[in-house]
């Protein structure tokens, strides 16, 4: 039995339910084509607009995707790579993790933050953390700007809630390309349409953003500094150009993900103009206080903050106050602050030193900002990564971070800050051999 024979119904809702049932029972599978609108309408004896409406309902629910001349097909939610260490016997240089020895030790302040329980109805943001965060964001605020703060369970949680309060399924989101893996997950699984915006050495490109807005993007997620995976940071010129483009779309939601914040060696350059109406700046503590802290603070316009609070209010209404107090205690502790400052210098120095090693070995590399290096290779990244595996190294290719895959990536993302000098020398030699050996070129 074909899907055309099996689909039933005389209303858009009934037809959509029939397709869902066939998918659940295994009659339809990922990437199967649904019948053309005209053919199915004739078979069912309904108006073509009824079938169009049914397919629209299925698309909004993420069940199908429209592929132009390729027709309407059952959506295939392909697995997406995740950050973190891999279960491997190889030396993992693709994890993207901070150095655990450079994360402040919380044991010295734990006792003094657990002094009383928090009950229902109390303020959702710890007073001490709120005061500290207001000062943190004030340095980058626009003159006279009212800032409302929201605390979430990390930056990914913040971005997910920000998009959910502004968008519905099939709305378009402008994402950097290559892109942070969690952003790809968030947009795809929520049923939004990702519009890729190329990234160069100065960050998100102006032409790419303009094209995304022309294509209907209702939100823009941008990393002002230490873009993951490229390490790019916005220049003054690029930030000004992007602000000019966005000034024509004041109600498009701008989300600035400043994930590296206190560890960054670059200034914060915002693309949020003085008249922009929907915006948010997200700062997580995971890179400098550890991924297990799962806490981020968002500064946003009042309307966005109120909508965020409503979304929090429908479930757990606050992030653990123990976690908030612990973050505040560490961020105001002299030893912890010194540890964070030393980590900032360490990451920058180790990345710069490894880039110099590669340059001496014949692979030009300009270190950006962040925990990793974005290394261009003179062949496909997958070929070079496979050659590195045979030498005992596990690297991440740029293919994993791309939204558009017209051709194979020529970049590797390498996390090298925890390598000692001997291991760094060995990796640089092996990478040069893997990339520059004639048989490896494509």
Automatic annotation (TrEMBL):
Transmembrane segments: none annotated. Keywords: Aminotransferase, DNA-binding, Pyridoxal phosphate, Transcription, Transcription regulation, Transferase. It comes from the Bacteria. CDD domains: AAT_like, WHTH_GntR. Residues 9-77 form the HTH gntR-type domain. InterPro entries: Aminotransferase_I/II_large, HTH_trans_reg/aminotransferase, PyrdxlP-dep_Trfase, PyrdxlP-dep_Trfase_major, Tscrpt_reg_HTH_GntR, WH-like_DNA-bd_sf, WH_DNA-bd_sf. One of its GO terms (molecular function) is DNA-binding transcription factor activity. It holds the Pfam family GntR. PANTHER family: HTH-TYPE TRANSCRIPTIONAL REGULATORY PROTEIN GABR (PTHR46577). This is Aminotransferase class I/II-fold pyridoxal phosphate-dependent enzyme. It comes from Microbacterium oleivorans.
């Amino acid at each position: 039995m074909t899907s055309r024979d099996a689909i039933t119904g005389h209303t858009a809702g009934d037809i959509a339910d029939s397709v869902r049932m066939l998918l659940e029972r295994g009659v339809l599978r990922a990437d199967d084509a649904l019948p053309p609108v005209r053919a199915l309408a004739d078979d069912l004896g309904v108006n073509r607009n009824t079938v169009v409406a049914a397919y629209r309902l299925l698309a909004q629910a993420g069940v199908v995707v429209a592929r132009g001349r390729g027709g309407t097909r059952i959506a295939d939610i392909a697995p997406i790579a995740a950050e973190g260490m891999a279960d491997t016997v190889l030396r993992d240089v693709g994890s993207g993790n901070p150095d655990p020895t450079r994360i402040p030790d919380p044991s010295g302040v734990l006792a003094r933050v657990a002094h009383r329980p928090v009950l229902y109805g109390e303020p959702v943001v710890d007073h001490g953390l709120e005061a500290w965060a207001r000062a943190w964001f004030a340095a980058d605020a626009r003159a006279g700007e009212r800032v409302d703060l929201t605390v979430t369970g990390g930056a990914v949680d913040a971005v997910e809630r920000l998009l959910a309060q502004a968008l519905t399924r099939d709305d378009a989101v402008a994402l950097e390309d290559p892109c942070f893996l969690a952003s790809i997950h968030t947009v795809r699984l929520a049923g939004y349409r990702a519009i890729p915006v190329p990234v160069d050495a100065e960050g998100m490109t102006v032409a790419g953003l303009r094209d995304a807005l022309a294509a209907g993007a209702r939100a823009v997620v941008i990393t002002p500094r230490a873009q993951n995976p490229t390490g790019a940071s916005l220049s003054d010129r690029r930030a000004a150009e992007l602000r000019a483009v966005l000034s024509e779309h004041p109600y498009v939601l701008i989300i600035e993900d400043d994930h590296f914040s206190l560890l960054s060696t670059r200034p914060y350059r915002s693309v949020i103009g003085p008249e922009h109406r929907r915006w948010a700046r997200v700062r997580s503590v995971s890179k400098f206080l550890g991924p297990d802290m799962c806490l981020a603070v968002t500064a946003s316009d009042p309307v966005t903050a109120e909508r965020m609070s409503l979304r929090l209010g429908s479930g757990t209404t606050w992030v653990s106050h123990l976690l908030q107090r612990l973050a505040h205690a560490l961020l105001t502790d002299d030893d912890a602050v010194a540890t964070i400052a030393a980590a900032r210098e360490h990451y920058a120095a180790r990345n710069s030193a490894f880039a110099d090693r590669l340059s001496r070995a014949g692979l030009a590399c300009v270190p950006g900002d962040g925990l990793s290096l974005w290394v261009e290779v003179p062949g496909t990244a997958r070929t070079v990564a496979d050659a590195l595996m045979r030498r005992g190294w596990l690297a991440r290719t740029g293919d994993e971070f791309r939204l558009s895959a017209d051709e194979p990536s020529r970049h590797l993302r390498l996390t090298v800050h925890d390598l000692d000098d001997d291991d760094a020398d060995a990796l640089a030699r092996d990478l040069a051999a893997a990339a520059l050996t004639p048989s490896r070129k494509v």
